[in-house]
Design goal:
mainly beta, Tumour Suppressor Smad4, four-stranded antiparallel β-sheet, two-stranded antiparallel ribbon, 10 strands
């Protein structure tokens, strides 16, 4: 299956997290797909765009997850959303707190 645009409500998964999370895209200066705001690579603010993934397995014993991400990688640079590259279904991010890789599990469309 080809890459798809990621929208508000997409399901995220961190390899070190105990549970999936949901991407929240604020509808500021955004285009929509089927009534859902399209995401860009800067939709990565902890507790705003990316909610915790349960507990983090990096720590022993596991502690509550606090995702710390600076930007999404592998955005679509020739399609801008709110002035930034669009977030795609194969995009990923690295958590600088636990080192976990965060991927898009479901694009939300």
């Amino acid at each position: 299956m080809g890459k798809k645009y990621v929208v508000n409500g997409a399901t995220l998964k961190c390899v070190l997290g105990a549970a999936p999370s949901t991407l929240t895209v604020l509808p500021v200066n955004r285009v929509e797909i089927n009534g859902k705001a399209k995401a860009n690579i800067m939709d990565c603010k902890p507790m705003v765009n990316i909610k915790p993934f349960g507990t983090c397995a990096k720590m022993a014993p596991p502690v509550p997850c606090t995702p710390v991400v600076t930007t999404w990688l592998k955005g679509k640079s020739n399609v801008l959303v709110g002035g930034m590259p669009a977030l795609m279904s194969d995009s990923m991010a690295i958590c600088s707190c636990g080192g976990g890789i965060i991927k898009i599990q479901k694009d939300g469309q």
